[in-house]
Amino acid sequence: MDHNKTIVWFRKDLRILDHPAFWEASKRGEVIPVYIWSPEDEMYAQLAEASKWWLHYSLKALSERLGKQGLQLIIRQGDSLSILKEIIYESQANSVFFNERYEPLIRKRDQQIKKLLMEENIKVKSFHGDLLYDPESITNHQSHPYKVFTPFWNHCIKRSIPAPLPIPSTIYSSKKKLNSLKVDDLGLISGMQWHKKLLHYWNPGEIGATSQFQMFINEKMVDYKSKRDDLKQYHVSQLSPHLAFGELSPRWIWYTLFNYETNEMDVKGISFLRQLIWREFSYHQLINNPQCVETPIRSEYNHFPWEDDEHLFELWKKGETGYPIVDAGMRELWETGYMHNRVRMVVASFLVKHLLIPWKKGADWFKETLVDFDLANNTMGWQWVSGCGVDAAPYFRIFNPVLQGEKFDRDGSYVRKWIPELSDIPNKYIHQPWKTPKEILHNYGIVLGLTYPYPVIDHSYARQRALEAYHYISEAKVHISSGD
Ligand SMILES: Cc1cc2nc3c(=O)[nH]c(=O)nc-3n(C[C@H](O)[C@H](O)[C@H](O)COP(=O)(O)OP(=O)(O)OC[C@H]3O[C@@H](n4cnc5c(N)ncnc54)[C@H](O)[C@@H]3O)c2cc1C
Fold first, then answer.
1. Would you say residue 328 lies in a domain?
2. Residue 165 predicted with pLDDT over 90
3. Which domain holds residue 102?
4. Which of 372, 385, 404 for mutating ligand 1's site (highest number of atoms within 8 Å of CB)?
């Protein structure tokens, strides 16, 4: 055994199972686990409110988990490079290992840090482990990035994935006592009244992630394919925040569901694994279109005639648009920091196509409020719904919020759960309360415009207006490409 001392720099990989940097460091000698809170360094990947809440608890969980392995998580605050140098100096560490992140600006920063530390004779190594594949390594037959999901999926499932790594059986801790902040010192949740309730819904950390995954396999996976869009009772995994913070490795999920004896996917798990590949596809897009966080991938959308009405945006955020399925989704988000994928599509479409409010504003609100905020998934989700991303939903496919509600929340239980003031409305009217006969409303004390809003916009009018806007940019595209 060498007398190496390796700093393991934890970032969005707050776990110890299948953690390549941690595993490799533990094989070399002493391990010094470090977390650096450096919001300024994070640029566009800076965590917003809901994610900070998650981080607070996830760091506590990691710290406890490492403690059980005899390791102290060293928490510091400040510029990443300076802190790493400080800890190298104090601990006499000779190496820094970390798992790769894939947001282009963060990658650039990491490469710079790597270069500068290596110039000071520190061994720096980074590892892949938070995605199934290195998103840059995937290209089609013409050596171009994929723009369509299905060929991307067909390509991915033919590639092999390295087996996940166990928790190291022997770990050497540093004899030297280093100063560390406490998680509470970072002030991640100070003054956040809103977030107190989130603990009712979530259990951040690796243990929470593993039990959530187990519960999904035992109780929900069997019906995932047929029922994942059903809003009555969730048949989805709700693993997204755990994945966003790297508390569960996608390779671990893959190996649990892929039968390597028969070299086949567990048929029950295949639809679920497909969703994990959507996550890979998002990172593939982000890496190949680094500007997409701010601007549409399809350039004609730069000319989109947005209306951008601030008052309507506020009503959307609060869940007061008068369309129950939209409002239920926005209220679920505010209450839990999560929203079901089907409803994310509906509320995003409503914002962009019904209200003509720029997708970036919606994406920013999601960033603020989602506990599973993920730069790649969120950007791709919004660009997909808006029609301006690769392999996106065509702009002219405009979700009708009433029909979406009737299809995926057939008996209205989702709406009733999040909008209790509508709970007495009969199923027939639950997705369009403005059609409810007056005497029924009266009997249940519902006064439209007072206890629940009228629709902020008429669907047919909004649809027609959105189509006109789409025609406008389609024309613009013709002019742009013909040099007008
Ligand atoms: C407008 C919009 C914004 C979104 N923003 C985010 C975001 O910030 N963070 C985020 O993780 N997902 C985002 N998604 C994708 C998707 O809605 C969530 O991943 C999913 O709802 C999470 O719930 P789950 O874990 O129960 O999903 P499951 O159905 O159980 O899927 C398992 C995992 O697969 C991945 N996945 C599932 N669907 C998608 C998808 N469409 N795209 C990419 N990966 C997917 C997620 O990591 C998810 O946890 C967004 C989608 C839309 C339409």
1. yes
2. yes
3. 1-129
4. 372
